[in-house]
Protein 1
Amino acid sequence: MGKKREVDDRFRKFGTVSFTSVTKINDFIDYLEKGKVMGSTCKNCGLAFFPPRADCYQCLQSDMEWFEVSGKGRLITYSTLKYAPVGFGDDLPYSIAILDYNAYKVFGRIDGLIPEEEIKVGMEMVTRVNRLPKGHLNYIFQKP
Ligand SMILES: [Zn+2]
């Protein structure tokens, strides 16, 4: 059986990337609550990031400023899921997509109220805050 650990953290070793509730970009959530979807720009080299990053992988500096994802982006690809990971099954079917804003791209989900036949690669869409049950927040792509 082995000795019981105080904190069972064995899954810390699983995979290469983990989700964490503690990040350097927690202001992202405050902005969502204010109705704004934000990315970050490196003040040193000008590279824009979405999702926002606190550290620039291009020049390795950490001097960042926030910018708002606003205006229209162009839908460059999407995929409609008929099978989803655990926890997302109730949302099926839904479409994940990438909008191109020129200086950066935004990966996200298309508003489920838009019929699939109206989704066309090349169409313009906007990124908007989406309020979920229990006070949770995310963002979705909608028609302008
Ligand atoms: Zn940089």
Note: Residues 27-33 form the longest helix (7 residues).
Protein 2
Amino acid sequence: MINTLADCGVEFCIANPGTSEMHLVQALDAVPRVKSVLALFEGVCTGAADGIGRMTGKPAATLLHLGPGMANGIANLHNARRANSPMINIVGNHPNFHVGHDAPLTSDIDTLACNFSCWIKSECTADSLAQDGADAYTATLRQSTGSTGQIATLIMGADAAWGECDGPATPNALPQRSKVNESAVESVASVIEKDGSTTAILLEHHGSEQASMTAASKIATKYGCRMYNGTFPARVDGGPGRVKIDRLPYFPEHVFATLDGVNNLILVGGSIPVSFFAYKGQPAQLIPEGCKVTRLSYVEEDAIDAMERLADRLGASNAAVTTFEKQEIDKPSGELNTKIIVQSIAATLPEDVVICTDSGGGVAAYPLCQSRSQNSWLSLTGGAIGQGGPCSVGAALACPGQRVLAMLGDGGAAYTIQALWTQARQNQDVTTVIFANNSYNILDVEYGRLGVTEVGEIAASLFDIGNPSIDWVALARGFGVPGGKADTGEELCTLLEKSYATPGPFIIQANGEIKR
Ligand SMILES: Cc1ncc(C[n+]2csc(CCOP(=O)(O)OP(=O)(O)O)c2C)c(N)n1
């Protein structure tokens, strides 16, 4: 099975093994062309595999220990599903003859896996395993409704793993994205021809790839449309020379303000914007009243082909593309706050950087960074915090030679801090900036949005993570990652530049009043 996965194109297995996976470990030992990487917590395995999926478009494997091991990885499997990342989980299990005796680690793994998997196989035998591997690979790329990439979970009894088989299976032919019907292109074209200046094109998932956004930009130039990405895209490549585009904001009232005056919304790859959370008396869908929605492509369809055909049909193929322009950004000075941190990050940003953001870290830096350096920006897609650190591990595995910058809230970072150990073990070029405000600040903000004007002592204690305050540099040292603390813009810029100039991982604790 491992050889089959390698023949299909799997390059990495991010593992946290146990006794039920020993034969898998033996197989990985025999197949070094699949790079086996140890992570100390399963949320790091799954978040790293997500990062690999986003940067390569191919699934990485995870190796997880029965139900409890997989359960530890579920928050980041949820984020990966939201990102449409392809991934193959290999989960060990007791053999059938053992399950019936209810040994301590026995649990209903299928039920757990249903939540995030689009393909599950739990009745594997030694004879079926190699073909199961080939089928799992295909399943991760299957273009079925609701997904561009998917999560396949192979639950493998130890008897399947220790049995004999005939050798690897032949990889399946890869599925292709389906093309949208001409009628979809035609109906969007007539909306834009009639009412281009009040039309917004929302580009998500496959629609947020450069080629698709390039076609959208040409149409926007000719017809005066607006164009947006969703609030938290899985990956968008940006920076000087790349297509200029804004993101929809986070809070519902800001989305309404952004879309004010939009009479037509064109969906490319995604869906109608939805409020992240529900608020009493507020609508779930965030489009102006009376706005007409027209879909060009579903998530599984070929958005690039669709946008290029649309541009052709509208006679916009030769129109100008608006790109981000390079801007010099001065290094700031003075005590750290959100603005100074953002400016320090943008002013020092290296070229071709992969950026992972999580929770309270770095979302605010997005606009300014686009006028500084080319980057691939990976967001927290599913709102389950503790994703950015693991994702940076995966991005660094997928993109050796590129610097990875992880910007993490101190709350979010505490969920999966074990990611640092794998960064140190693999000597990865990852710079982690912790936005250390000693607080679950966004929860404080959301509490206020309920109309609560006085935060009680108990409530305050549930949003305060500064007592005791966390020493991130000491923690990182414990995991084998060097670092430093910054209280001012000058210190932060110096540490960032030092990190970018030095191979290997580095952590920076940015202390300050950081608000969202
Ligand atoms: C897995 C998970 N658990 C809990 C939450 C709820 N939650 C949302 S934001 C947040 C705190 C974020 O704190 P931090 O990362 O420091 O960012 P800040 O809000 O301070 O900017 C929590 C606990 C969540 N989103 N995901």
Note: The first strand starts at residue 12 and ends at 15.
